[in-house]
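$ run holo --ligand "S-adenosyl-L-homocysteine" --emit tokens
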Amino acid sequence: MTASFDSAAHEAAKPGPHPVAAPSAKSTIAGLGRAGLSEALAAIGVPEKQRRMRVNQLWGWLYVRGVTGFDQMTDVSKELRGKLTQAYTLDRPEIVSEQVSIDGTRKWLLRLPKLGHELRAPEIETVYIPESDRGTLCISSQVGCTLNCSFCHTGTQKLVRNLEVQEIVGQILLARDRIGDWPGAAPLGDARLLPDSDRKITNIVLMGMGEPLYNFDHVRDAMEVASDGEGLSVSKRRITLSTSGVVPEIARWGEEAGTMLAISLHATRDELRDELVPINKKYPIKELMRACSDYPGLSNARRITFEYVMLKGVNDSLADARALVRLLAGVPAKINLIPFNPWPGTSYECSDWETIERFADVVNKAGYASPVRTPRGRDILAACGQLKSESLKLRASERAADGNSSDQAG
Ligand code: SAH
Ligand code: SF4
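-- output --
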């Protein structure tokens, strides 16, 4: 199931008209919410009665126009622009590499500024998946993940920290820079296979690195920025948070953020789920299903997506399929069967295609439509669960040597 490597795949993006600024000692305000921007203005002496108006100005420049320099903010006084430039930047996370898959999927490896105690700058990944009528951005919420699901590459990464609000929103800004998804902007890099829709990023999924409910406040504030109708305007119905099942936070997420929800289920018995998704030991399936049934706003029009990774000989029997259907009866649900994406060092294998089809048949007959998620960006290791930014990660040249690909990185 390996795709050939795209001849257009390339590393190390070059700065274009939306320059990717080098990280500096000044902190970025691109990505902050209204409260954060207001504080940033207060810190450089903007009087309280002006702040609201100034925040509104900044908001339009940052999130409607996507500017990357304060000098472009023509309706902001020269004096204030000067102060802003002295104190802050509009940097996005720094691009370490950009890869474009043969199917148009793009993956960015991003370097974040070091926080106080960190010895080295942490890295995360962001993936863009274009389809004909939509573009989905898969963003990370943490560096690494503490949860160690046994089939997930991210869980093997040692370094873990929560992303700041700017670092979460920064992934959206950066992707829009690179895809040219700002008014009047042209795409940078390889522009093939972008969707036909006016906006190139129509959907956001929190399915990159990390457990988003373990970084609740920052992810919530970032999604407020992403969904703000006067700014980035990605509606909450087009934002999906995926969780491994942090039960106590699910209802709160529904109340405070109200996005769509996806649950990484992967097994219908506690014994097996304990092994695959160890947080299950703390919050077993019964509690998880109760939290799902109680999810605020749940209806047939707003279903929960249950993700189920297909692991050969582990959870892929017809009995498993029937148990899945039984477990979900009564909950407005969608089912996503995810072919397991192998990574270097894993002992799991993906179920055979026939097994997946037979499993999907059972699920289909129970009334769930097209449940198998087609893997995207396999040639650049961009698929779910393959994101990992350190050590074991293969370089493009090593992958080429692997014999599966013919990388002609430019
Ligand atoms: N931590 C969150 C969100 C990130 S993982 C969560 O677990 O839900 C996004 C999805 O990818 C989850 O459903 C996860 O279980 C799945 N996943 C992880 N590793 C995978 C792999 N190697 N192959 C396929 N899916 C994987
Ligand atoms: Fe963390 Fe999700 Fe991977 Fe589990 S599947 S280790 S929760 S990122």
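-- notes --
The radius of gyration is 22 Å.
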